[in-house]
Amino acid sequence: xxxxxxxxxxxxxxxxxxxxxxxxxxxxxxxxxxxxxxxxxxxxxxxxxxxxxxxxxxxxxxxxxxxxxxxxxxxxxxxxxxxxxxxxxxxxxxxxxxxxxxxxxxxxxxxxxxxxxxxxxxxxxxxxxxxxxxxxxxxxxxxxxxxxxxxxxx
Amino acid sequence: xxxxxxxxxxxxxxxxxxxxxxxxxxxxxxxxxxxxxxxxxxxxxxxxxxxxxxxxxxxxxxxxxxxxxxxxxxxxxxxxxxxxxxxxxxxxxxxxxxxxxxxxxxxxxxxxxxxxxxxxxxxxxxxxxxxxxxxxxxxxxxxxxxxxxxxxxxxxxxxxxxxxxxxxxxxxxxxxxxxxxxxxxxxxxxxxxxxxxxxxxxxxxxxxxxxxxxxxxxxxxxxxxxxxxxxxxxxxxxxxxxxxxxxxxxxxxxxxxxxxxxxxxxxxxxxxxxxxxxxxxxxxxxxxxxxxxxxxxxxxxxxxxxxxxxxxxxxxxxxxxxxxxxxxxxxxxxxxxxxxxxxxxxxxxxxxxxxxxxxxxxxxxxxxxxxxxxxxxxxxxxxxxxxxxxxxxxxxxxxxxxxxxxxxxxxxxxxxxxxxxxxxxxxxxxxxxxxxxxxxxxxxxxxxxxxxxxxxxxxxxxxxxxxxxxxxxxxxxxxxxxxxxxxxxxxxxxxxxxxxxxxxxxxxxxxxxxxxxxxxxxxxxxxxxxxxxxxxxxxxxxxxxxxxxxxxxxxxxxxxxxxxxxxxxxxxxxxxxxxxxxxxxxxxxxxxxxxxxxxxxxxxxxxxxxxxxxxxxxxxxxxxxxxxxxxxxxxxxxxxxxxxxxxxxxxxxxxxxxxxxxxxxxxxxxxxxxxxxxxxxxxxxxxxxxxxxxxxxxxxxxxxxxxxxxxxxxxxxxxxxxxxxxxxxxxxxxxxxxxxxxxxxxxxxxxxxxxxxxxxxxxxxxxxxxxxxxxxxxxxxxxxxxxxxxxx
Lengths: 154, 792
Hints:
Largest sheet of chain A: 5 strands, mixed
Number of domains of chain A: 2
Structural class of chain B: alpha+beta
CATH topology of the domain at 406-454 and 620-758 in chain B: Aldehyde Oxidoreductase, domain 4
Radius of gyration of chain A: 15 Å
Number of helices of chain B: 16
CATH class of the largest domain in chain A: Alpha Beta
Strand content of chain B: 25-35%
Order of helices and strands of chain A: EEHEEEHHHH
CATH superfamily of the largest domain in chain A: Beta-grasp domain
Number of strands of chain A: 5
Distance between the termini of chain A: 43 Å
Low-confidence stretches of chain B: 788-792
Strand content of chain A: 5-15%
Shape of chain B: globular
Number of strands of chain B: 31
Oligomer: heterodimer
Structural class of chain A: alpha+beta
Low-confidence stretches of chain A: none
Largest interface: A-B, 63 and 64 residues
Shape of chain A: globular
Radius of gyration of chain B: 27 Å
Mean pLDDT of chain B: 96
Mean pLDDT of chain A: 96
Strand order of the largest sheet of chain A: 2-1-5-3-4
């Protein structure tokens, strides 16, 4: 079926299988692999995107549901050659990146958190990110990165 | 010529600094290409059909319907394997595709290539396999019974290791008994098994894959494809975590077969469920221990029987049981020891490498045993450890004497001196920071707090006589803004930060700012495995060696140009420096690039003799953790309040990166302590998803503090010790000890469940330990069965 979707400000039209997820549409049809495929059942948050402004797991949204909608992905936060987004910078500066597979989803979740709560306390940070699994870091430096991003460029 | 450098600044970003990851920014931007992100023009997708039986004969396979399925380009079976039909890390016993028999649920039986992943999946579902179920061996002790079905022609014993030291029949004043179990843990790296195979014009294949050791993959792939090794070219794709799960081949041979068969690029990328079936796991273990000591708390004798479940194929089980057996008595002096460790085959999922590799299971048991001894003697747990701690010059039960550096006493003294956490009382905390979290089940009532410590040690690098090595090539040349060093190795960056570390080493050794990492591939010699906490030591050492060879060539050129360099010239900030003064800019000597390749070996180790004697390990690293926990006594819910780590790191090349290893390794140990276990029922994994296999979230993890103890190892580059595995060893027993302290319950099995904490379930009962099998010697049984070395 044909799906017309606005991704990171540009409209795209794709012919997708009806069972495809938005994650598959982004990764395999639109060449945007920044949203990651770690669990494909909404448990790990690695595929987090904004869907008409709401934070969602793109593996749980059908590609067909995105027809006529606006999607923003991690790729939309910074240009390839431009400076990284302040939250991206904070993750690198705090040492919050190891294998990096969870990182794009966490970046999206943290940008979303700081848009809502500019100066979150520890409990708020942990609760907001409890849907994002990371297997490498033990999360300590992810909490540091959120604090750095909240205190730094805001 | 640029201005002379301020040598006070020297070169920045060298060893010892917490520089930022060189791959950090692209990873945050979603622009770092993992195996699952790869794409090629005309690419097909592969899928795997797996066994649904733990043990069965294959009477026939019908593929016609699958072949006729839409978008299908190939359906391949065992008969289509072009070369050798088996592969394996240590022994070539694992069918590429099963032909006459399946030995576990999830064993690959057929592979499909189709236009899309969905079409490939549907076609695989149309393959009909006619199975004749056989009696299965589903329990590790049952595998040792005389009448158990034989899983392999050589029987069900994979390896039996016996370590005898002193007089194991010695008497003692105080005895403690213990039976300990650990469950089957999964590495659960977030990145799935994935790669892309592209057929080459020469009949060979180019494979881009997420793995831990390119050359051991190639050593298995090439013979199965019937190709010479030089026609199998492997390049590392981005790796989304490994933790041992990527040591064995997964989709590599399958994707190459499909690519060579169809003449088109083929990508395979497992989903999460398939990932759980498609890689090995941490061995479940059962350990029976009897420990004798003096009334003063000095260990006299340690007798242990331990069994681990290797599952259906050998994988790295023989090395895992070697580790578990040689570390069974912990980092303690024990004059009289008998340890008998057996790895068995069963029809459960194959087990192999996971962070900690045998030492994890051993550490849970020896630390539980030491706590029991402390309790029996009414002695402080740290004190009883201090009275027995191994120090430099002491011998392990294998006879191996501790050399180099061993800051064991210092670690224990530091862990014993930690102040209590100063966190607020439960009532003053947000509910998410109390047991039960957002469920808000307590405001502090019914909570008990406990404190536990654990101490452990592990080998760094491969053991038992393996000639471990890594090769590095360094090319130093002029760049637009100064000299550039290119570092080429085959060492897999899996997320731990190795490429950043070797960048630091090149900067320090060559005095250049700009370092480029060449693609990690098989066009250079092996770097060995990214496992056993070994790459900073081994590949870091290779890069150091190659850089020093490059430096010698630079000095030779300067001398040939008439310069006088004295006895100890250095490279710094792009210059040759003599007696603290810059004498010539490097760029002037690089009309021709300098290009040097060197191989780094560590000192030799020895195999274990018949009584487990020898010097099997090249380097030992030590670590301790203290855990503070809160338990809801009514609900059995746990919150780990704080974990404090003190770790022997030799020399910290990048302290922040080490903290990251400690925090992440601690999280995996916390997972084994509290939640992570594959539930195996009739040989089938019942929880192959992140909904049902729980790994720690950010709400499960406490504050972790790290204290790095730097006592350089004189034998290793810069004095480094491997750091990745130690925290995983010690956090599990530290948390278990804290839970025992909080609840007073025995808790002899991990993961600990709420039922165990509220008393609905008692300790796991110990039966009699199984008798030791009759084996020809201390090596793995397939070695004897095949009558010699198998290249694997």
